[in-house]
Amino acid sequence: MQQHEQLMRNFSSITGCLDQEKCLNYLQMANFELESAIQLFFEIEIQSQQFVAPIQKVNQQEPQPSQSQRRQIQGNFELEQSQTTQELVQKYKNYKESKLDEDPGLVSGVWKIAKALFTKNQNYGEDFQKHIQSKKVKIEIKFEMGSFQDNIKIASDKMHPLFVYVHDVSCLKILQTMFQCKSFVSIVNRYFLSYAFIANKDTLAQLPTQNIEIPSILIYRINFIDEVSLVKQIKLFPQSNFEELAVDIKSIRSAISKISAQEKLAKRLVDSPEQIHQSQIDRFRQKQLDMEIRRQQEIEQREREELLQKQDFEYMMALQQADEKKKKINDEKLKQEQLIQEQQEEEEQRQFLKATLLSGLPQEPKENCITIQFRFFDKVITRNFNFTDKIQFIFDFVMCQDDQLFLNPKADVDLIQNFPKLSLFDKKDMLIQEIFNDSTGEQLIILEKE
């Protein structure tokens, strides 16, 4: 069933028939022989067109190409006929003549074919797949087993080009990158028969191509005179862009389909010239041209849509980055403003506390008092206190002083009596007379705590 579906796809791509039921009917009438089905299609469709056309002209007015367009179509067809098709016709004639010279009889010809079919070759495809699986790489492309000779014949029978991937054991990263490109994998699996092997002296000897750079992709086909021809060799690198390569190999596949159609036409012109009519050629060429135009329009439309999607995505990403940058700037600005406000509030509270402490100090006495000299880091200040004042008032007086007197105006302080050594920090609730009971003058050092 899967083989029939593949034949239907090939039939549709060559004839341009999009009706799947009609494709299946022609293949069934030709016993699923693709070339016979295609020939049958053109014969029947052209004949039916010749009889139906006059009636259609009465009931339906189809748009006709302008005179300049008809001249261009006719000119393109004549150019094609005069160059490509005629060259292929002559090439096929030469091939048939050489085959008659080389094959003296039917028996020897059959023997050569049988000998080629039953020749056993090393299964390098299996060696490759075992190697890849041993590296725990998931194989995405449907690589075939067998040898190059096996697979080029299978590809020819299926009317597919042969996609050959050649690498050595150091190119595993490139293969993984290839498998990760979904578009590349999809195109290869759909339009090609794939084969791969590990490059060495024995495996490279099976190819008809010399001086192959490793790793590479090689695309082969068997043309209408049974020649194995290398269509394209693509050298791979670690930085190869497989999205771009997917587009390239799809265009290569289209070019192969076009030349294959021209080869079939040339064979029919030589083998069955009585079945070829100018109207058939015109219809075939016009259908191929229309198909190519539609295919190109679809590609351009898809590319436009992908470009618009890419531009929309890049625009959204730019907006998102701009919003994130703006938010980051605003957050930083808000954070700085909050920090400044907190510092201002803290400074206002500290100044308010200093003013409160200053207003709460008892009035400085003139007599019956103790004179205390305060030594700041670069200045000395003197003030009188009552003996009945608390030590706390001394601390309050110090804390009310100008910020310039302190190394760190926000630090806590201790008052130190130099001789005898004495700290007043834990004696704030005591009276002055309890500490300095027999003195009228003292010197205290301001100690700023960290």
UniProtKB/TrEMBL annotation:
Residues 319-356 form a coiled coil. This is UBX domain-containing protein. It comes from the Eukaryota. One of its GO terms (molecular function) is ubiquitin binding. Residues 365-438 form the UBX domain. It comes from Paramecium octaurelia. Pfam families: UBA_4 (PF14555), UBX (PF00789). Keywords: Coiled coil. The keyword 4Fe-4S does not apply. The keyword rRNA-binding does not apply.
